[in-house]
Amino acid sequence: LSDVWRLVCSTGRDFSFYSHPHDIYSHIDMILVLHSLVENIAEAEIGYQFLSDHAPVSIVWVLSDEPLAFKRWRLNCSLLYDKKFCFPQLTKQLELEREVLALEKLLMSQKSDSIMDSLRYKKKFELNTILTQKVEYAMFRTRQRYFESGEKAGKLLVLRLRKLQTSRAIPAIYDKQGSLIYSSKAINEAFTSFFKSLYSSESKATDPDFQKFFCKIKLPKLREEDRLRLEDPITPDEIKAAIKSMASSKAP
């Protein structure tokens, strides 16, 4: 997050609070926005202290005309008021819970193997199956990003990169003229211009100049006997010596 007023009015000097006991001014009232939204701020102003020791801080936010890069899916809230949409999943579970409770009360009053079998192997089994499916789905929603996505370029990677982009965002920089810019497009152009000039060669030498330069350099050459020795096949004694020089209990 960035303090908008300090970015927009970087050369100005103003305060938003006055302490009467200490007789000092300070800037403690601010509007914080995401780095990605700084370029949409057109104006930022600290007002006057009318009613309290604090001055109001105001901004002018201009909405961007650029389309969003993505659209987040949201549930249609009107479906939550539709009983046919919400209740079918709960109806079966509630019926089984009532049947299990009734069978347990009946089993308390009279012991019966048939009631026990119906309670244990049928009703409780069905109820346990439904609850297990709910737990599995909850675990799937919680852990799917780590077990299914892995190193794939999916939603998990997008969320991770989004956090990194937010933490590494550059809200504003100074250009060559010393002016503060906080438009993402202008910032990218400034960095492009800087690195383009940084990695551009200032030398105006031609190919003959390079040939003349390298001809004066005396580079060492490999002797013929050394070349033949390097190309000789590896002997068993050399292999044994290499194995003995290795650390024990380590794979080569």
Would you write up a description of this structure?
- The protein has 252 residues and is mainly alpha-helical.
- Among the domains are: 2-61, no CATH class; 79-149, no CATH class.
- Helices cover 48% and strands 10% of the residues.
- It is built from nine helices and eight strands.
- It has helices at residues 4-8, 83-86, 88-109, 113-149, 155-167, 184-198, 207-215, 224-230, 236-244; strands at residues 2-3, 17-19, 24-26, 32-33, 41-46, 57-61, 173-174, 180-181.
- Strands 1-4 form a two-stranded antiparallel ribbon. Strands 2-3 form a two-stranded antiparallel sheet. A two-stranded antiparallel ribbon has the order 5-6.
- Helix 3 runs antiparallel to helix 4 (113-149).
- The two termini are 51 Å apart.
- The model has no long low-confidence stretch (mean pLDDT 77).
- It comes from Latimeria chalumnae.
- InterPro entries: Endo/exonu/phosph_ase_sf.
Structural class: mainly alpha
Q: What letter string, H or E per element, gives the SSE order?
A: EHEEEEEHHHHEEHHHH
Report, as a whole number of angstroms, the end-to-end distance.
51 Å
* Helical residue percent band: 40-55%
In short:
By secondary structure, the chain is mainly alpha-helical. Helices cover 48% and strands 10% of the residues.
How are the elements arranged and paired?
Layout: E1 2-3, H1 4-8, E2 17-19, E3 24-26, E4 32-33, E5 41-46, E6 57-61, H2 83-86, H3 88-109, H4 113-149, H5 155-167, E7 173-174, E8 180-181, H6 184-198, H7 207-215, H8 224-230, H9 236-244
Antiparallel strand pairs: 1-4, 2-3, 5-6, 7-8
Protein name: Endonuclease/exonuclease/phosphatase domain-containing protein
InterPro entries: Endo/exonu/phosph_ase_sf
